[in-house]
Input
Amino acid sequence: MIDNTLLITVLPFIVLAFLLGAYIGRTKSKKERSSSSYTLKSDYFKGLNYLLNEQTDKAIDVFIGLLEVGDETFETHISLGNLYRQRGEVDQAIKVHQNVISKPSLSINKRNDALYELARDYMHAGLLDRAENLFQELLEKQSHIQPALKYLLSIYQQEHDWDAAILIAKKLEAASNQLFSKQIAHFYCELALIEKKKGNTTAALKLVKKALGTDKQAARASIIEGQIEQQSGNFKEASRAFRRVEQQDALLISEVMDSLLQCYKELENGKEITSYLEHILDNYGGITSVLLYAEQIRLSSGNKAAALFVVESLRRKPSIRGLNYLIDISLDFTKGTAHKNLLILQEITSKLLDDKPVYKCTQCGFKGNSLFWHCPSCKSWSSIKPIQGIEGE
Ligand SMILES: [Zn+2]
Output
C-alpha cells in the first residue's frame, strides 16, 4: 500500500503522466496506434512505475522519450520542467528544458520561451554565470526583456557587480516605466565605499555626488560623504553632509548625531551643539538626542542636573537606554543600600539592552544589531531602520 506522503509527493507527476497518456491516445492515428501501442503502453507504465518508486530521474527519461517536442506538446514539456523546478528538483528541470531547446524544429518564439525557463532553472540552482549568459542572450534577441532585466539585476547585486547593476537598473527603468533611482543611488554608494576603502577619497566623493544626483533623498550618500570629509579633517563640509540626513530620512538622525557633534566640537562651535540638540529634541525626540543633551548638561552642570533632565524626559517617553544612563550617572551621588540596589538595576537594564536588536526591516521584520542598507532577508534597499519605542530609539 502507498503511504500518504509518497502519494502527495508523486501526485502532480502522476496527473501529468495521465495527461501524457491521454495525449498519446488522442494524437496517434489508428494505424500508428496499432503498430506502436504495445511499446507506448510498456514505456508509459514503466515511467509510472518509476514515479511510484520515487525514481523521478529514470521516470523523466521515459516520459521525455514518450512525447516528441513539437508545437502541440511544447507546453507539456515546459510545464513538466517547471513542475520539477517548483519541487526543488532543479537537475531534472534543466534536463527537460535542455531537451526542448535541443530540437532544431522549434520556432524562434518557443525556443526563447524554453531558454527563459532554463535560465530560471540555473538561477534556482545557483549557477549564476550560466543564468546570466542566457538572460543576456534573451535581451539580445529582444525577448522576455523585463523579467530578464529583473533577474540580471538580482544576479549583479548578488555578485556585487555594481557597475553592471547600474546599467541594468537604468535599462529596467526605461523598459518598465518604474523608478529605480533609490537602488541606483545605493549602487553608487557601494562603489563609493570601495574607493573609500582604497583611500581614493576624490573618486569616492564623485560617486557620492552621483548617488545624490540620482536620488536626492539618499541619506546613505550623505552619511558616506560626511564620514569621508570628517576623516579628511574637513569638518565644515562633513557637518553640512551630516545635517542633510535630517531632511532625507529623519529616522536615521540617530546614526549621524554623534559624528555631527564631534565635527562641531572640532570647529569649536559650542553654540551650534546646543541649538542643534534642542532642535532635534523639539522636533523629533529620540533617546539618542536625550542622552547627548544630558551629556552636555553633565559636563557643564554635573551629574545631578543631567539626571533631573533625563528623569523628565523618561516621564514623557520611557526608554531602557535612558534608564540605563540614569542609573549610571546616579551611582556617583548615591551611597549604601541605594547604591547597591542601583548596581542590581544596572545589571538588569544592561542585560536587557544586550539581548535586544537595534534595527528592524520595515518590509519583512528582519531584526539585527547592524544597519544593513540591503536587507539580508527580503533584499529590499533602505528598508532597515532603528527600532523605535521603549526598547529602541
Ligand atoms: Zn527585509
In short: Strands lie at 359-361, 367-368, 384-386. The two ends are 60 Å apart (CA to CA). The first strand starts at residue 359 and ends at 361.
